Amino acid sequence: MTKSVSNYIHKSEHQSGFWRWLSKGLALLSLLNLLLVLFDLSYVTSRDLYLKFLPVLTKYDPVKGIEPHRFNLRYEQKLTELKQTIATEDLRSPTTRAVIADLRQLSLEMVDENPFQVANKSGTLEKIKNNMRDRVDRESSRQAFQIFWSEAYLAEQGAAQELEFFDQKIMPLLRTNYFRGIGEDGNPIDYFWAIDIWFMGIFGLEIIVRAWAKRRQFKNMPWTEAILDRWYDLILLTPIWKWARIVPVTVRLHQTGIMDMENLRAQSSRRFVASFAEELTEVIAIQAISQAQNLVRSGELIKRIFPDDNQGRDYIDINETNEVEAIANKLIQLTIYESLPHVRIEIEALLLHFLNQAIQRSPAVETIKKVPGFSRVPQQISEQIAAEISKLAIAAPQSAYQVITAPDPIAEEIIARLVKRFSRSLRAQIQQKQTLDELQNLTADFLEELKLNYVKRLTKQDFEEILAQTRNLKQKAESDQND
């Protein structure tokens, strides 16, 4: 039996079997408990609505320690007595007059003592007084009640009509008043724990069984870790913050397949990320740019780009590569082999323009043009020279680069000395105070403009678009996998 229970608990929840149905049953039980909790938490504030539309639900009053107010009982008893005496006796009979006088006295007592205050429903008393003022057309609620509960008024207006008004407009408001005692802890009486404790006992037993089975599967797992494996279930055992039980209930319903909460989870996580991503990204970007500004202003950036031969680098080299030289080498390759060939026509046109201007200024050219058959010779010479120069401008660097990049130890040594000397010279020139200050100021200003014009323009809409793109890419990837 022990081994069987352990195996059931550790089966997949998508698998058929006893534990699958038991898990669903416990999930539905947790949902029932959550609904009861929400009903209990909202009962006192919603009691007036229940009393008006679903009076059967007010049978829950004893659970919250709610009792009919003694004043309500006395008033309703006298009103019932008045209806009976009017039905059996004359309106002017001594018994009827005595009951009317009692109702008049109770009404004045209600206005003066405010029995609604204990239930924090003084606003309801104001509604009653306003209705009576409007009915009798008096400014004072005391006068209104005194006139209403008088033999003359009831006889003049019709007792049946006025009592019907009182039943429809006043008594429903009066019945919303109640008495709720205070417990020894200083809080209003509440017996919901007597219902909730049964649910807590069932869920507590479930947690213990799950932890026990977990320890059987993993021999050295302590009880604490086994229980905290499903830490959210512990919320079902807490008597405070009962509304937080929505967390374990939602997880249980999703895990058992009763409700698919994946879309809700994804949307909630996206909304959560979007709520703080804007500020977080701004802070990170501004901090990174500010650190870059500090590196520039302190001169540390120049030292890292052009390290001194006598000083070791103070940063970690992750690939044993001189990145500055590698970048320069790559830029040279792109310039020689990719960029220059694409602009050959423009180079020829520019050279031809300059040559034409130079030739046109020469007196010898004017003489040659006058010779028959030689008028286009200067133009042809210019075109030929421009073509040769542009070809040389493109081919020569390529040939030179191919020569220096071929395996040649002597050339490599010369190039290394050249690069080293060039770097020293460039570093020396850059580190001159005037040049260094100018470069540092320009770079720092550029980074500041980057913060002002780009980072601080990031809006929530930007992150919504990013999240939408992420969602679309994820959906596309999932559809590709399904295909």
Task: Describe the overall structure.
The chain contains 20 helices and two strands. Helix 3 packs antiparallel against helix 8 and helix 12 (262-298) crosses helix 20 (460-482). The chain has a two-stranded antiparallel ribbon with strand order 1-2. The radius of gyration is 46 Å and the shape is elongated. It folds into three domains: 2-43 and 191-255, Four Helix Bundle (Hemerythrin (Met), subunit A); 66-180; 295-311 and 325-477, no CATH class. The longest helix has 37 residues, at 262-298. The chain starts with a helix and ends with a helix. The protein is mainly alpha-helical and 483 residues long. Helix content is 73%, strand content 1%. 10% of the residues are buried.
Count of alpha and pi helical runs: 20
Number of strands: 2
Q: What is the N-to-C order of secondary-structure elements (H for helix, E for strand)?
A: HHEHHHHHHEHHHHHHHHHHHH
User: Distance N terminus to C terminus?
Assistant: 45 Å
Quote the average pLDDT. 76
Rg from C-alpha positions? 46 Å
Strand order of the largest sheet: 1-2
Structural class of the helices, strands and pairings? mainly alpha
Relative helix content: over 70%
Q: Which geometry do the CA atoms define? A: elongated
| Strand coverage percent | under 5%
State the low-pLDDT regions, or none: 1-15
Number of domains: 3
Largest sheet properties: 2 strands, antiparallel
